[in-house]
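Run log // design_07
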């Protein structure tokens, strides 16, 4: 049976934290051996601690993560300090969650596994790692799932990524009951944060704000055509956001036809070069400009000519390039609405401020889910005692029923069943209050002492068929 007790103080631990672990273990030795004391450990890096180039080197795809988890079976349990594993890998973070009774050895093992898997020297990434233990690891995972640790506060994508990490770990047998329960409750916290607060209500990235402006200006995007000038990251993110809100027809414009066609294949879009921009303008309802050009690429005359060829159709232009791609006087053309990066960033700042006001509400949800998880962990500590208590009382019940029925040979089957049922109901009634009290004391942190007293009072044996 795995045993977890109260968690250490809320504090981020450096990689050299042997003193902290030693002091924690000393608290456990009063009742159990150190080998039975299990820690929840998280070792990872994210956008706050590592550059994008390093994060790219330490990134699992779904396929490579599955292969990695499958290889864990090749390490015999006695040779590994890690009992359960779940890994979150996104563009902004890699976090390795583990259940272990030796956190220092588990940390070394995690670093070694990552080094071998990604063919990197530990010196290249170890300085960028953070290490979180017990309550700190639990708190961090809850914050991640709720979007409070994201690059964009409250973004929703991370909740799906946490859920995917949990599902993959469970499917490959890497995660067990402890991490499985922890991730279930973290995901539940994330869902509550999004339904009970407004942490994710207002768009808080440039791409999402641009698309919401398009929805306000153009309405339903399903029948609209979206054109992107320049196929860089920001342009593609905005295109992706537009697709999520129903846009289906796309035009991709690039300096060379080869690059335009490459991006167009990904989006089933129409490829154009910069020489064909006016043709694209005549077709488009939303234009996103995100080139790296040192000068403007959309001018008043060309936009006005395109608008004249498509009367009664408004055009929204979102310029997210720096330096800007669109001449200022384009906004003077009737039927054209122009937003630039400054406009979007002001809106993003306002929306982020609105999201920040929701943080206390999300923190309250996290505190509730953490408390519930602690209660569940503590209740697990007394499960063997409850099982042993019930097994012993059931054995006595069966023995006494058999003895009674032996002394009453004239009873028919119905009468024998009544005697057996009476004994069963009396046993359950006798067991009910001690069981409820023991679980309640476990939730309050007193489970070990009460379990010990029950073992002593009833001379309980070790239960059978219990993990």
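design_07 sequence
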């Amino acid at each position: 049976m795995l045993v977890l007790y109260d968690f250490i103080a809320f504090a981020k631990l450096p990689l050299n934290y042997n003193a902290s672990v030693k002091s924690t273990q000393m608290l456990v030795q009063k009742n159990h051996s150190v080998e039975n004391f299990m820690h929840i450990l998280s070792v990872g890096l994210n956008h706050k601690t590592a550059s994008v180039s390093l994060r790219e080197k330490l990134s699992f795809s779904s396929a490579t993560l599955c292969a990695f988890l499958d290889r864990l079976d090749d390490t015999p349990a006695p040779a590994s300090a890690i009992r359960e594993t779940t890994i979150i890998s996104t563009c902004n973070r890699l976090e390795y969650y583990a259940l272990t009774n030796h956190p220092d050895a588990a940390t070394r093992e995690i670093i070694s596994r990552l080094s071998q898997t990604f063919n990197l020297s530990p010196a290249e990434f170890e300085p960028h790692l953070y290490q979180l233990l017990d309550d700190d690891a639990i708190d961090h995972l809850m914050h991640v799932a709720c979007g409070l640790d994201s690059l964009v506060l409250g973004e929703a994508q991370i909740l799906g990524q946490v859920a995917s990490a949990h599902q993959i770990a469970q499917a490959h047998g890497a995660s067990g009951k402890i991490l499985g329960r922890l991730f279930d409750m973290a995901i539940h916290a994330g869902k509550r944060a999004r339904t009970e607060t407004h942490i994710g209500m207002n768009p808080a990235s440039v791409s999402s704000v641009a698309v919401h402006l398009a929805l306000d200006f153009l309405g339903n995007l399903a029948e609209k055509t979206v054109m992107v000038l320049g196929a860089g990251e920001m342009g593609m993110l905005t295109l992706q956001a537009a697709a999520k809100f129903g846009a289906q027809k796309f035009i991709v414009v690039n300096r060379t036809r080869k690059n335009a066609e490459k991006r167009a294949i990904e989006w089933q879009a129409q490829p154009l070069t910069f020489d064909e921009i006016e043709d694209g303008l005549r077709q488009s309802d939303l234009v996103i400009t995100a080139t790296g050009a040192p000068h403007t690429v959309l001018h008043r005359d060309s936009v006005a000519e395109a608008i004249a060829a498509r009367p009664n159709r408004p055009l929204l232009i979102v310029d997210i390039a720096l330096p800007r791609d669109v001449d200022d006087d384009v906004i003077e053309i009737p039927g054209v609405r122009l937003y630039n990066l400054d406009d979007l960033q002001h809106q993003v700042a306002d929306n982020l401020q609105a999201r920040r006001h929701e943080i206390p509400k999300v923190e309250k949800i996290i505190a509730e889910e953490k408390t519930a998880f602690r209660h569940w962990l503590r209740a697990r500590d007394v499960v063997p005692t409850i099982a042993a208590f019930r097994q012993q009382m059931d054995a006595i019940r069966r023995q006494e029923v058999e003895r009674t029925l032996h002394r009453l040979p004239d009873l028919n089957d119905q009468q024998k069943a009544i005697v057996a049922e009476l004994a069963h109901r009396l046993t359950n009634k006798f067991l009910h209050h001690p069981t409820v009290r023991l679980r309640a004391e476990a939730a309050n942190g007193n489970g070990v002492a009460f379990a010990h007293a029950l073992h002593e009072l009833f001379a309980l044996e070790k239960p059978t068929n219990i993990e």
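The chain is about 55% helix and 10% strand.
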